[in-house]
Amino acid sequence: xxxxxxxxxxxxxxxxxxxxxxxxxxxxxxxxxxxxxxxxxxxxxxxxxxxxxxxxxxxxxxxxxxxxxxxxxxxxxxxxxxxxxxxxxxxxxxxxxxxxxxxxxxxxxxxxxxxxxxxxxxxxxxxxxxxxxxxxxxxxxxxxxxxxxxxxxxxxxxxxxxxxxxxxxxxxxxxxxxxxxxxxxxxxxxxxxxxxxxxxxxxxxxxxxxxxxxxxxxxxxxxxxxxxxxxxxxxxxxxxxxxxxxxxxxxxxxxxxxxxxxxxxxxxxxxxxxxxxxxxxxxxxxxxxxxxxxxxxxxxxxxxxxxxxxxxxxxxxxxxxxxxxxxxxxxxxxxxxxxxxxxxxxxxxxxxxxxxxxxxxxxxxxxxxxxxxxxxxxxxxxxxxxxxxxxxxxxxxxxxxxxxxxxxxxxxxxxxxxxxxxxxxxxxxxxxxxxxxxxxxxxxxxxxxxxxxxxxxxxxxxxxxxxxxxxxxxxxxxxxxxxxxxxxxxxxxxxxxxxxxxxxxxxxxxxxxxxxxxxxxxxxxxxxxxxxxxxxxxxxxxxxxxxxxxxxxxxxxxxxxxxxxxxxxxxxxxxxxxxxxxxxxxxxxxxxxxxxxxxxxxxxxxxxxxxxxxxxxxxxxxxxx
Length: 625
Known about the structure:
CATH architecture of the largest domain: 3-Layer(aba) Sandwich
Shape: globular
Strand order of the largest sheet: 5-4-6-7-9-8
Number of strands: 23
CATH topology of the largest domain: Rossmann fold
Radius of gyration: 25 Å
Structural class: alpha/beta
Largest sheet: 6 strands, parallel
Helix content: 25-40%
Number of domains: 3
Strand content: 15-25%
């Protein structure tokens, strides 16, 4: 057998460079590069291997500023490429590796492939404890990296070089499996990374991993088709699986041919353009009036590629028709069966194609229902236009109107990125995408700090695409450092830093539940009250972003904002627009609800009133078993 003597780390680099994905006849590099922050746990292992072999095999290394951020960037890259490609990420032992765990959980929650190489203690255990190693008095083999087990779809710790021969292929299989994908974690003890082994040359032969499109069972297609024929008020909910499977055309054909409206989740927004006649907008807690009213009376819900999380179902209050039935069209059986659904386990595109064929000759929904859908959509679109339109007479700018103005300037084909706070809910209702990749939200984990790293991932995946990042001041303060990375890599995008001087979303939620504002506004500690209710903390975000190399604008009204948006769109590099907005000018709920428990007893009258309202909503919740 022909062999090549390499270290474990060198073998990893050569192996990754030879892996490809294939879907629908299109091949691409499965792992096009590596994000790396080096420390003593990996600098002489993977660090050495990437320096010596990376350029030779076409596996470039990127240097971020934060370990969590690099996994966010890898996940965003995977999302934008339809889960056909992702990055590897390596960090040093201890806190460096553990910093990746939050973003790893986000990737798994959102069913996005990321490949992680956290460094670990010495397998030989002679230096014990090594710097940054956590010791356990009873479990001698315990490691902080064990925390990755619960957030990973595949996890292993390599203690001998030969284990790599089976671990890496299994890792690639999971990364490319549409049902099983998520964070894949291979822990690398720092001594094992540098150990040499005689590797079979066959291990480095290029390999193509076909991303499967499983078809549905014919019997289940027939059952679901029969349910569709019987339904009088069916509704489709499009989730992220629609986008991951690129089932845009199939969804449009199905909805148009049979007259079934399509509501959107955060993950599924953009599968149909906002102005498609069957697109009734967002549904659930962050939904709009059209989709929420249709959901309330729906007798059949076809959930395509969605996990049916609590925001989509309005904490299981959205569907009030006692006869409602659910169908889960999902590549993952675990998701397909939710809400007591009829499970149609399949790729979204294949499933919709099969259903369309099975319903040949079916005239679709009744005319009065189609007319109702058209009327509700028109009313909703009109309402959205009103909330998007700037009101110059207002003393402060409103977040909703900032969104509308930015959308008008950048258009419906630029990719908007967001993750947490009140912005995702407003964007879900107000942003008008015209392209399936024009809406990029991380809302499965709603991880503050995702936004700017995600822009790195999207721009690396699609360099010509215009990217607009919406980020609140609270999220910006958590993880802004990747502006430096973008400058270093020559990446170009626009950041709208919406400054309401608070964790505005949670403040609003807090006050809606009867409590006064407490510890959510960015204020100094008050010496008299010993609370954080003193004067506002003045943060010069413009100076901060400029210090990291960004071009910066600080508009104070809508006229200046319009000019700033136009100038930023024409400028080069990273552009940051700091936009002060009202803390209290918020969108209403549009008949959505979210289950956030209210204190059952309280001396505060506002809390007691909120508890009464909460208990009234609890009576609307339905159980599906």
